Amino acid sequence: MLEDTASPDGGVCIEIEGLWKIFGPNAEQVLNSELRTATRAEIQEKTGCVVAVRDVSFKVKQSEMFVVMGLSGSGKSTLIRCMLRLIEPTAGKIIINGEDICTYDEKQLMAFRRKTMSMIFQHFGLFPHRNVIDNVAYGLKTRGVDKEERYARAQQVIEKVGLKGWEEYYPETLSGGMQQRVGIARALANDPQILLMDEPFSGLDPLIRRQMQDELIDLQEELKKTILFVTHDLDEALKLGSYIAIMKDGEIIQSGIPEEVVTSPEGDYVRRFVQDASPAKVISAGSIMTEPDVIIYDWQGPKAALHLLKTSKSDHGFLVTRGRKYLGMLTEKRLAESLKDNGKNIREALEPDIATSTSDILLEDLFGLAVASKYPIPVIDEDGKLIGEIENDTIIGSMVQYKEAEGGDLETEKAPGKETETNA
Amino acid sequence: MLEFPEWLVIPLADWIEAIMDWVQATLGGLFEVIGDMVLSGLYGTLSLALDIKFFYWRIPAAGWAFVILALVVLLVVAAAFITWRKTHKVKLTAVLAVVLGIIVYSALFGLLGIEYFLLWLPWWLVVIAVGYAAWRTIHKWWAALFSAAGILIIGTFRFGSIGYWDLSMETLAIIITSVLISLGAGIPVGIFMARSDRAESVLRPILDGMQTMPSFVYLIPVMMLFSLGKVPAVFATIIYSMPPVIRLTNTGIRQVSQSVIEAAQAFGSNARQTLLEVQLPLAIPSIIVGINQTTMMALAMVVIASMVGAGGLGLEVLLAIGRIEVGRGFQAGLSVVILAIIIDRITGAMAASQQQNIKKYD
Prior knowledge:
The complex is a heterodimer.
Chain A: E1 12-23, H1 27-32, H2 40-47, E2 50-61, E3 65-69, H3 76-83, E4 91-96, E5 99-100, H4 106-115, E6 117-120, H5 132-136, H6 138-143, H7 147-160, H8 176-189, E7 194-198, H9 206-223, E8 226-231, H10 234-240, E9 243-248, E10 251-256, H11 258-263, H12 267-274, H13 285-288, E11 295-297, H14 302-311, E12 316-320, E13 326-331, H15 332-340, E14 357-358, H16 363-372, E15 377-380, E16 386-390, H17 392-404
Parallel strand pairs in A: 3-8, 3-9, 6-7, 7-8, 11-12, 14-15
Antiparallel strand pairs in A: 1-2, 1-4, 4-5, 9-10, 12-13, 15-16
Chain B: H1 12-51, H2 61-87, H3 90-120, H4 123-138, H5 141-156, E1 158-159, E2 162-163, H6 164-195, H7 197-212, H8 219-226, H9 230-254, H10 258-266, H11 271-304, H12 312-323, H13 326-360
Antiparallel strand pairs in B: 1-2
Helix pairs in contact in B: 1-2, 1-3, 1-8, 1-9, 2-3, 3-6, 4-5, 4-13, 5-6, 5-13, 6-7, 6-9, 6-11, 7-9, 8-9, 9-11, 10-11, 11-13, 12-13
């Protein structure tokens, strides 16, 4: 997964340390007084200052999609703007590639914005007086890249986001989804190391939104940018994030991998948040699979196989090679028929049309597979080795179990190979 | 207790007189030079300086004129060439060359130069040019016809031995000079006002004052500084007509959506790039409305300014008042009205088409 691309200890791309943003006069006095620990409402009442971001710290690894989730007013938009210093933080450090950008002077900051980090906005923020290609090439223009190269590079990213043929159109003539594609292309044209996405899909229709999310996942697969993504939509956060931080009143109150946040929410706020989240969107095949009951090796004959099945409680078995490579599913019924026809080769007796799953497939996608056949779903790894099976009952059972365990003490087995990291 | 106390006096009038006396005494020379520049332009002022043996070696004025003219042509051609190479847009290049040419020519030869040029143009060319401009901006054939006919009608008027064609060109020359200077000063002030809240809070009441002050009042100080003639008329017109363009430049820039500016900044635009690449282009429709209003204010003022010697159509009105000649007054007044309608419709249509452009992709 994404963790593989980052080196084990290094590879930290963004590091935020004790970041504060307080709007209002005398913001620094609030920080240095005992009010520092007071609640947001108290501070506002006593000083008129509004605490937007309070002592936030986290790390984002290279090529990770880090999602900050929170409702409006939680400070997430302020946080993301601090990253580019569109809003000046009151205190704290923003360390990017080992440099604290809060110490940058004007010139360094401009270079940083032009090269290292690009932003995609909720309301697109496109330039209405420029056509698509000039919008996309804008970042390059501020850098002073000459026209031919600018257009050549803009053309490449326009094609990448699927806007070929729309270069000369003005933003107003495009649909919302297409406008946001322009926004994404404009950010990618700079080839930045880091992308900031401020609720990029919130303004779109649900159908378009889902499509854009899928495309973003594909794009990320290819580009492997470090992405800081802000959203108020839990489903979106769970779908996109490789790591999620939940914000409330300017603070990060919980962070972790998506499965962790949904299955073991800390505190009432997060619990209420995630209670509507469908477990089907986070629980993976790997976490509910069981050991296969019957394993039959391909050197065994059909008769031996039938015998094995009959003596076991199960009505099916998995045919594997010596290296446990998955070949197919055997059932009593098919084996018996095959023997009747004097079949010698066990491979001819395999049950047809059995779909397989991998351990990272989510529950919601398993439903379809479960309906398609009355037999369990085999789970294989990347090398095609059989690692487990999922009974249809288990799929329903895991949903029920989750609902019962809404109290928060559900123990879900972690997917193999997915280590839990504590970043924040 | 019923009457206002006599001892409570603020001698504002005396103070202002004193200030103006001081200004006239100490800066009179400066104003003389400025007035000279406006009247006869760089070239005129320079040739005047040559005539009074300002330079050690005397090059004939004609030679200087040739050199300056060559430089002007070179500048305009270079600007047009660069624009063409960068954008490959014929219309933009042509418009830029014409606008730049007018500005440079006006700066060189001043008010008298413009007046001389307008009178030098064949009358039928002016009629055709006005019709063409109306057609290109309003996109209606009848608008073109009415505009051309309007100018033609002004030309047919005369009173005694005075032809109204010459008078209207004289008036037009003062308007062009005043508007060019108003825009040259007003647009930068408007930009400055948009970028600083403090500047806006200081300038706003001043602009309000400038527009509410009875326009006759401006005639007094300009007459003091520039004596009688066309120059004080131009300055009074500038003061009266500048507020709209300042105001609308300011509003236009401030109206640019914050999210667009934020995007520009996020992509590393510095203050200059944000202004030139985003704020000004988006403020252009508003600025053109400002240009339209400024032009109309200038036209209104130029009639009043005839009292300090502006000449032109305004003088005809003034003379008609003095002699109670109804026909003459009405004839001159109608000429002003026709001129006003033509100028307003053409610049108004420019503003509307710009607005539509922006709306199309806002």
